[in-house]
Request: fold
Amino acid sequence: MASRRHDSHVQFVQIDGLVALKIIKHSQEEGAGGTDLVQGMLLGLVVDNRLEITNCFPFPRHSEEDDFDEVHYQMEMMRNLRHVNIDHLHVGWYQSTYFGSFINRPLLESQFAYQHSIEESVVLIYDPLKTTQGFLSLKAYRLTPAMMKFYKEGDFTPDAIGEHRISFENMFEEIPVVLKNSHLVNVLLCELAETTKRDHKFNFLDLGTSAVLEKNLRQLMECVDDVAMDTNKYLNFQRQNFRQTQAKQQHLQKRQQENQQRQARGEPPLPEEDINKLFKPLQPPPRLDCLLVASQIDQYCTSMSEFCSQSIGKLLMAESLQENAGATGGASGSSS
Reply:
């Protein structure tokens, strides 16, 4: 994913601590421990070069059979918040994810709709499973201007992709996220840090992380299989298109020879015909889904790289602590 800023003047996203806690609570209560997706709306305002997210509210869980009007629900909630003098301006939406699997067609369609109506809109991706391992995972994404133009035109053919210069690397851009708390909350956090037991401060050194890496690898393998299947479909299209092109050329050559023979006999040439009616042009397979899968693979690779770096740091730290403990134990034994 692209990390540099484009035309938007928003350089980073500032999230109030209360918003982060609301998102975490929503995921814990309705997300079945992180395995089910939860969504909600973000509220705030744009100040200078930052997007301040000061409030949020969740979307209620409902099935497809329920008569639930999402737009009416959003407007009603924003109207109620305005009545009680709470920030009610719409600045995006949030969604939880399961092991970083969030790049798909529904997310693309939703973000395009939000960003098309309000340019500064972002989507916050929250990973509850990674957060339980000691790392708060909140990332903000938005579609690049090139991707907005490409998706708006609705032409996902290979020629359109080449014309817009779209690749999996410039579909989304990540915007830095900053958490902000009030001074009273910061004082409370300092007091809590002093009263926390020391035994609970080493949870971040948990080395049992192989299950997370294994799950990411399995999901990566599934995406690679999808890319292989899509590649085979595109290769089949190219072979069929090549055969049709050869058939067109043979038909034109045969027709030209017949006209030359008729002209030599003094007969009128054959009437002109539409070659596209005889050989209907083949429609190339859309390439948007392949781009999304490639972008998801890139996301998995980035996540595993960060994860492995953190795990290696834990292992080196644990090895150092073990050596220090052994040296201290040896010194105590010799002195006794």
Notes: The beta strands are 12-16, 39-47, 50-58, 90-96, 122-126, 138-143, 172-175, 177-180. The chain has a mean pLDDT of 81. The radius of gyration is 29 Å.
